[in-house]
Each structure stands twice: as structure tokens, then as C-alpha cells.
Amino acid sequence: MPFTIQKTLLLLGCFFCLSAPARSQQSPAFFFASRPCRDSVAESLKAQVNRAIKLPLSDSAASALSGAYWAMELMGYQPAGFETAIPAQLQHLAQSDAELQRAFLEMLYALYPGQFAKEVQAIWPQLGSHKTKAMALEYLAQAGIFPSVAFTSSFYGSEWYLAYRKRWKDPKPPLPAVADFLHPSFLSGQAVLVSFQYADRNQPGYLMIRDTSGQWVADSLGKPLQFPQLARAVSNLPYYLTNGNTPQGLYRITGTAVSDNPWIGPTPNLQLVLPFESGNAFFGADTAYLAFYRKLLGPHLSKFTGLWESYTAGKVGRTEIIAHGTTIDPSFYKSKPYYPHTPSLGCLCSPETWNDRGERVSSAQWAWMSALQERKLNPQWLVVAEGP
Question: pLDDT tens, 137-151?
Fold first, then answer.
């Protein structure tokens, strides 16, 4: 998560291996999750947003503005009168730094969906990168607008436009069922984590654990365990864009850690890498990338094209998607269908409850990581899949 606007906040950090002992469900107080701190941070962020949005849309103000846009998304905060300034800002957006363009369009997509389609349609071809052009097209799609793109443009042949076209032009792909992930051709003999999600990411999904015998880990009555998990980004941008929803597909597990990001909190998280992220961390020594990925899925699952999203997302540069808990105040999202879950910047986020003193009183994140440790399971792979 960005630190521009909150870099002076409390930071905690240490690292765990996958076999580290689990913390208890009840935890020592974590001040950042306490009610006094939550209220103070929200008040401070709103004050900083209100100051930053008065700055001109310029490269010199890019850091302050990007932090403000992130805070607005986090809190669902639409400053009074800000939307009246947006049309004029959009007229100058194409002359701004590419990263500022990206942050502005992310905020616009999240908080003002389709509201400024006319202005975005006028400027999108002049935006500074293929990524920001794709973001603008996705914004226009919210309003049912699908501009033509010249065959001769470099953007037309880019991975960004190909991903956009697949979303909107291709027929909807078939979706796997839960039982498909028990198929013996899929990582046979290995423990696997499977995060089942809905195409509508406003609906929380759930995580299941497949053991080395190819069966779902179950409770004492034989009922497969399901741990709630949200794969929705606060922006709700599509999977191939920075800070978008969690891509479907495979992730390599590289270990566990305790984050130094206070919004993630002190509960151990699962570290993941996408294809093409961190050098050869996903593929190892194998350089036949496509064949390697297809072999991991196996002949049965590789036919489900949605399970290739993480391959595409990694190829265009997405990084830093992990599976973590949360200290974000759920009251920001009381009106949202996924409440009391809290969205992230594209990670898999398991709900946690903290009392006013900042003590963790329940944690789906702790529960599923403890289930792995209790059964001495060390999976190497996690897969995210939308189902019917």
C-alpha cells in the first residue's frame, strides 16, 4: 500500500517462515487498530486530503496528490466541491506525469464511476502510457462507451489493450467448479490453497485447503473448511491494472511475514509472487514460461482461460499481491455489499475484528494459517478462481 500520506504512522515488522508458531486468536493490543487511533488517523487523512486537492494538477504536487487520491479511495471520501474541479483538471491531465495520471484515473474510477465520461473520452488518446490509456478505456466502459482504437497505433498491439479487448470483446469464458481443483492432473500430491471468488468482486469469496492426498481439509464432522476472503481492490479496477482486483490464476508461495504496513497489521501474512515477478521467483530455472504455466495447471484446468489472468498481470508488471489480514476500519464500508470485509490494493484480504483497545478478537487470516500449521502443510502454490 502507498505510504506517501501516512509514512509517519506506526510501523512494526519482523519475519516468519511458514512453519512459525501461530499467534493465538486473541492478540496483544495493536494501537493502530484501536478506536482512538482509527478516529485520529481518519481525521488526519481527511485534513491532508482537503489541503492536497487545492494544489494544482502538476508534477511538483504529484506526491501529495497521489497520497490524497489513495486516502479518498480508502475512506470512500468525496471532498465537498471537489467534483466541480474535476472537468478542468481532466483538461490538463494529459500534460501531467504518467504516475499522476494513473493515480488520478484510479481515484476517478473508484469514486466517480462514469460521471466524467465525456471529458475522459476527449483526452484519453493523449495520455502518457499504454496503462493509463487502458485505464481510461475501462473508465469509459463503466458508462457503456467503447471508443475505436486505430490498428496502426502502438497501443493497439500492447498487452494492455489486448487484456481490455479480452474483457469486453471476447465471449465470457467457462468457469471451473470447486471439484475441478481436485482433478488428479492439477499439482498431484501437493497441498494447494484455492481462493474461490465471484466475478462480482463485491461478493466476498472463501479460501479452501487441498491436502497432499487431493482432498479438501475438513472439520471434525467432515465438512470442508471455508475461510472468508475478499479479492476486491478498493478501486475495483480490473485484474491487469495496478491496484486492481486480485487476478485469477496461479501464485507461487514464498513464505510468510509480518508486515511493516500498519493497515495490514501484525497477523502473519502469506507472501506470494506472480509470474515474471522478482526475476525467476515463479518459474525457477525454466524459461519456457507458457509451457511451464500450462503444465502447472494441467490439461484439465488449463482450458479455463480465466486462470491465466495472473500470467497476463505478471507479464504487464503487477507485483506485491499477498494474502493478508487487515486493520482497516470497516466502518468506511458500511454501505457496501462486502461489509464488514475491507478491500485492499488488490491482495487477498481475510477479515479480522479488533476491539476499541486494538485487541484482535477474531481473525479468518489467523484461522486458515493456523489450519496449515496444525496439519504441517507447506503448500507451494495458491490459485484464485472465479466460479459459477
Answer: 999 999 999 999 999
